[in-house]
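Input/output pair, single chain:
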Amino acid sequence: MIELWSNLPPLLQMAVKGFAVIAVMFPIGGACSLVERKISAWMQGRPGPNRAMPFWFAWVPVLGPFLQRLGVFHLMADGGKMFLKEDSLPGHVNKFYFLLAPVVAMIPALTTVTVVPFGAYLTDAGRLAPLVLANLDVGILAVFAVSSLGVYSLILAGWASNSKYPFLGGVRASAQLISYELSMTLSVLPVFLWVNAPGGSGTLSLFDVVQAQSGPWLSWSGAWFIFYMPVSAIVFLVSLFAETNRLPFDMAEGEADLVGGFHTEYGSMKWGLFFVAEYSHMLVGSGVFVLLFLGGWNPLPWVPLADVAAWLHLAGQPVLLGLLSIAIFLGKTLFFIFVFMWVRWTVPRFRYDQVMKLGWQKLLPLAIGNLIFYAALIAIIQLNLGWPAYAGLAAGAAAALVVAFTFPRKSAAF
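Output:
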């Protein structure tokens, strides 16, 4: 099968990859919408969507009622409604940019998927190779560069609507993206400082980050980065909530003060594209978090995929091993999708000034201090400076924390 794929013309491979991304991301976006409604119902003690049932499926004795209680047919109804509902176009909008904004939202959402590895398999030489549509050595840089373009769709939608509430939503989205993208970028730098040893070729590949967490039992290289870089993981996760405009950071669409925010004037499939893009960004962001801090497709710390392949005798079965790695990776990623939804229905929305204060006065200094700490730690390890240097670094970090918590910044008087 691998040989058959390799022998296909490059243009045909590109077309198949493009259709595969669309065929996977659109259904997942719709399914996430249904799952979010069911999770919110579960947290609030109610059944949630459980009424829709096609007349031609109602006679199936066990499967029909089971799928009805799950709400699966609501997913079909919602999808049909998006395509068949009247797609009105307000007369006061800038029509070209108004129609362009949902398309611009989808392009980064679908493009970033191509550079995120989602599994691995063993080659004939016994080495792990990534399952990824575009295996770039600058994978994390491509993710940040392309995903940050998504905010342009929110700005464009708000401006083209020619209405004050959507415009304010677009302005909030741009300010929030700038505030938290800095912290997110600084939070991953310690990971790549650790992965790229001095004298090496240097890499920004997400696959290499997973390989750096695939060491043998009880070795430093076998521990996931979340264990010895917890601050980086927390900063990245909080910034990810803000970057995807999810509660409690959904300032761009706060219905309490902006009606619907940037998408107030949108409906039907144009409205649906914005939310498919949002769920796509959630999926990609969760996948990147899993690759950076949770070992990717390695099932447990100090239990790499290669060892699992040896135990299950899958070394000569690249397809089965690839499917197993995809299942492990998706399991971790879907857990964080659940965390996104859990937080949405648990934590109330922040005020706009609280969001800005958290980004600039809390997360950014924390990310800078975290970067300085790990840069010094890596230098101490590489230069073999010994325990006095470790003690000095620990004392400096403790002093910085004491100063940060003892002398909080006073709020300006209004």
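The chain has one domain: 95-406. The first strand starts at residue 119 and ends at 122.
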